[in-house]
Amino acid sequence: MSKDAVLRGLRECGVLPVVRAPSADEAVALGEAIVAGGLPVLEITLTVPDALAAIERLAAKLGDSVLIGAGSVLDAAGVRASVEAGARFIVTPAFDAEALQACRDLSVACIVGALTPTEILLASRAGADWVKVFPCDAVGGARYLRSLKGPLPNIPLVPTGGVTLDTLGDYFNAGAVAVGVGSDLADLAALRSGDAARISGKARAYARARAAARRPG
């Protein structure tokens, strides 16, 4: 799948579930529950123990129907290992020139983390496909994103950090191309209580909220 096709798929979904867990097995189970709820995108963070194995397992099981990416990627080696494991896109928490160059060399979609206007502009000029605004909620949430879009209207921004069902619409109204959603969706407590259906239900709610945010008016 081409990089452009991946970016189109991410834009169409609009919600990037960020999966963090203390084990690869739990990360896989969380991912499967989220996909079952109708969100065909998963970001498995490299902070998960054996994260590459989790990416491989999910990619093998879900195939082309789901876009699986790697998050919390810090360097070029992490980019290469993630792509080899089956990641279709890379998400970094901050700007790293070598990681971004590795993404460009491999023609893989890259969402680069940044926070300030200067950082966002530098990441975009360096070749980031999209820029993850993180931690967005800590500096004003949707109001901050709207302020950024004024002088930087053409840079696709992905607010991440503290996004919930209650705030999702505000972020899209402020100009987000997509949102990153973490623990509010990848609910470890629900998984450990045997209630994977609750996670799938929350995924369906996010899909509905994204669809509602797209409707004109």
Short description, anyone?
The chain is an alpha/beta fold. Helices cover 49% and strands 16% of the residues.
**How many runs of DSSP E, i.e. beta strands?**
8
Average pLDDT figure: 96
Helices and strands: which structural class? alpha/beta
Q: Count up the helices.
A: 10
- Biggest sheet strand line-up: 7-6-5-4-3-2-1-8
The dominant shape is: globular
- Share of helical residues: 40-55%
Weakly predicted, low-confidence segments? none
Taking the sheet with the most strands, its summary is: 8 strands, parallel
Question: What order do the SSEs take from the amino end to the carboxyl end, as H and E?
Answer: HEHEHEHEHEHEHEHEHH
Rg for CA atoms = 16 Å
Strand proportion:
15-25%
Could you characterize the architecture of this molecule?
By secondary structure, the protein is of the alpha/beta class. Helices cover 49% and strands 16% of the residues. The chain has helices spanning 3-13, 24-36, 51-62, 76-85, 97-106, 117-126, 142-149, 165-173, 188-192, 196-214; strands at residues 15-19, 41-45, 67-71, 89-91, 109-114, 130-133, 157-159, 179-181. The longest helix has 19 residues, at 196-214. The termini are far apart.
